[in-house]
Amino acid sequence: MRLALVMMGGGARAAYQAGALRALAELAEAADPARRAMPFTIVCGTSAGAINATSIASHADHFAQGAARLVDVWSNITPDQVYRTDWPGIAAAGARWLGALAFGWATFGLMARRMPRTLLDNTPLEHLIARTLSFHRIEQMLDERRLHALAVTALSYSSGRHLTFYQASEPIHAWRRAQRTARMVALTPAHLLASASIPYVFPAVRLELDGHHEYFGDGSIRQIAPLSPAIHFGAQRIVVIGAAVPTPEVPAACPDIDVYPTLAQIGQQVLASVFLDSLGADMERLDHINRVVLQLPHAVEPESGWRHVDVLAIAPSERIELIAARHLLRLPASVRMLLGAVGGNRASGAAFASYLLFEQTFTRELIELGYRDTLAQRDLLLIWLQSSTGAPEAHPEARRG
């Protein structure tokens, strides 16, 4: 039984995934004490989940060690490891936006030789990826057949296409759907930066594609089928680790419900549509396909191109924005000032701030939450882990929307 691991986006919320992976490593050891290798031979990630996916995939030969390293990174992360928090950096970004608004976008762009592009400078994230991830080990894990495929997704701002960039242990036919396509490439830090470039917050990344260059941003944008890459790679069971529950949440009580929403409140709804809305719909689609497959005669099923795929979602049992509200004051003063301009330094804007809250007290709380929520599904996960084949094998492309 081939298992896949899919990790969704969510900025700093992705610390939750590190705790879930630590619990999964413990359960894998309980399922087979003699085995150190990761039971998930297919790993897919989007946005910050792409970085986590690449990290854990590079330790496919020692799952527990890979999970421990990821927990260590998230437990000790600080905002200045992800984006510039110094006053000159924050002030320069603010000045460019104010200048563009005051003098006109085109006029100011000519005056300053550069139009404002994003809210924050994530150059430190590039250094963090280079320091903590080994792309050589990805190649090694694939060559040793400990890993079947690793995929990260990004959206082309230039063409509007949603791209899945992947490496595999054997040639896999790249698929193409409406506004969705795949490319087999040698993954680089630039692919991860592109996938994790939150719209408006972090800059787009220039990548070469089909002999020309395009600008790419966060893979969660327009990601209507986040489970699709894992299914194309031949997954029979998929464990998804998200940053929120895969079904719509009931809004938290707000004492100022009649007050006009701040930009942060509006922004958090926009980001929620980017990061959180697609998984639930895709799981419903897959459930429908599974029901259809159950009705097919066994002789017809292989010819249909459809097959049954089980999905288990690991999602926060607590509202992350309520957790974030307790840690807002831990952010550097420069970042609080920037967020304060849009209402993101108040409890009502905590959901927006949570995507940028790379503070140890917050991430450690999310790690523990992810650990507990995963162990809460211990019984089913143990059954899945015990049935894992581990070693990759050839599998035809699954035809799936």
Automatic annotation (TrEMBL):
**The keyword Hydrolase is assigned to this record:** yes
Protein's recorded name = Patatin-like phospholipase family protein
Give the record's GO biological process terms: lipid catabolic process
Q: Which UniProt keywords apply?
A: Hydrolase, Lipid degradation, Lipid metabolism
Coiled-coil regions listed? none
Transmembrane segments annotated in the record for this chain? none
Q: Which SUPFAM superfamilies match?
A: FabD/lysophospholipase-like
Find motif (GXSXG) and give its ranges: 45-49
Query: InterPro entries, from UniProt?
Result: Acyl_Trfase/lysoPLipase, NTE, PNPLA_dom
Q: Which GO terms describe its molecular function?
A: hydrolase activity
Record-annotated PNPLA domain positions: 5-231
Query: What organism is this sequence from?
Result: Paraburkholderia dinghuensis
